[in-house]
Automatic annotation (TrEMBL):
Residues 26-413 form the PPM-type phosphatase domain. Pfam families: PP2C. This is PPM-type phosphatase domain-containing protein. It comes from the Eukaryota. Keywords: Hydrolase, Metal-binding, Protein phosphatase. The lineage of its organism: Eukaryota, Fungi, Dikarya, Basidiomycota, Agaricomycotina.
Amino acid sequence: MSQSKLDAARLKVLEACHSEKFAHPSVHTVTFQPLGPKKNADRMAVEQWNILGQRWLFLAVCDGHVGCSTSDYTIKTLPGRLKKALEILISEDCGGRLDRNNFKEAGSMVSSMLYHEIINFDLSLVHDIRDICPNPSQITEEHARKLIQDNLEVVERAFQGTTLSMAIVNLDHHFMWAAGVGDSTIAVSTIRSTGKREVKRICELHTLKNRREFYRVVMAHHASEGPVVDRDTDKILGWLGMTRAIGDLPLKMHSAYMRYLFQFMPNYGNISRFVDKIVSPPYVIAKPSVVSADLESVWRADPVLVLHSDGVDSLIEGSVVFSPDLPKKIDPLDVLPYLLPDARFDSRVEALLEHNVEPRWSRDERNMAIDILGNLLGGTNVERLELVTNKRRLLAEEPSFLIDDVTIVVARLAE
C-alpha cells in the first residue's frame, strides 16, 4: 500500500475522533465512534482541582449503555460532588491538610467517602423516580406514558446506565485513589529497572467473566426464578453484561416500576419481554471498587494512568471486529505496555494485534491516546483502517462487524 493511502486512511480515523490535550500534568484524551458523535455514549472528564492550596487531578471515563443520558449526567454532575466532599473531608476530618504525614491514616476515610458518594449518586437517580412516581402499581398505562413524556430526561437517565472509571491524584504529595463501577478499565504504568514498561490494573472489572461477581449475582436469587444469567447472550436476564453499573434502575428498583412505568419507555424496542423476568431486584448494584495507592516510590519511573472504556477490549479481542470467528483471549493490559509513551518496541505486540504498529501513530497531533487508538484500529494496515471507518458496512442491515465506542485517557503524572 502507498503512503498516500495510509495517510488518507489515517485522516478518516482522525475525523471520527474527538481529542483534547491538557498540560501540567500532560493528559491526552480521545473518543472514537465512526458513525458520529451522536452515536457515541462514552463520556470523559479531566479536571484540575485546587483544594486548600494543593493540586489535584481528576480523571473519569463513563461508558453509557442503551443511550448516553446516564453517562452524560454522571460526568457533568458527579465530579463536582466528589470535589466538594473531598474538600469537606480534608477541612473537617484531616485538620485542614492531607499530605504524606497523614496519608495512611486518612486513606481509609477518603476511600469510604468515594464509596458512599458514588452509591449515593446512584441512589439520587432512584429518589428522582420515586418523587415523580411514588406508587407505580396505582397508575395506568396512559398515566405512565404521560409521566415519562413530562419527565423524559429524569426517566431516561434512570432507565439507561453507565460504567464509571475514575481517579483523583494529589500531584503535590504523589498519592491517589481510584474507583470503578462496571467494565471500564483504570490502570497504572511505570518503567521498570529493565527499561520496559509494565501496566497493572487498579480496580477489578465487574463482569460475569469475574467469577466472584458471577457467583454473587447468581446466589442472590432463588433458583425458582429461573436462570439469572441468560446463556444465549451471557447477560443478566438477557439485559446487561456487567454486574455493577450506575443507573439501570429497572434491574434495581421494585419490579412494579418495570411493570407499570419503565416498560412504556418509547423507542427502546420490545422491552416488555423483560417484565416477567424481573422478579427480585436488585440484579445489578452500584457499589464501586475503591483503591488507594502511594505513588511516591514510582514517581521517578514515569507513572502513567490509563483509563479506557471496554471498546478497547473489543478491539483487542476482535470478536466483533477483525476476527469474529476466532476471538483472541488477550488481556488489553498485555498489549498496552507496548503502545504507551517511551515504551520499547517489541514485535510481540504486532503478533498479538496481527498488524504492524507505528509508535507515534498520531504524528503531528502528538497525542498519546490517539497513538494507542490508531495502533489498535490497524496501525499501518490500510485495509483495517479503511474497514473501521466504512460507514456503509457499519450501517448494513446485517453488519459483518461492529465498532463499539472507544474512549482513552492517558495521564503522564510526573510531567
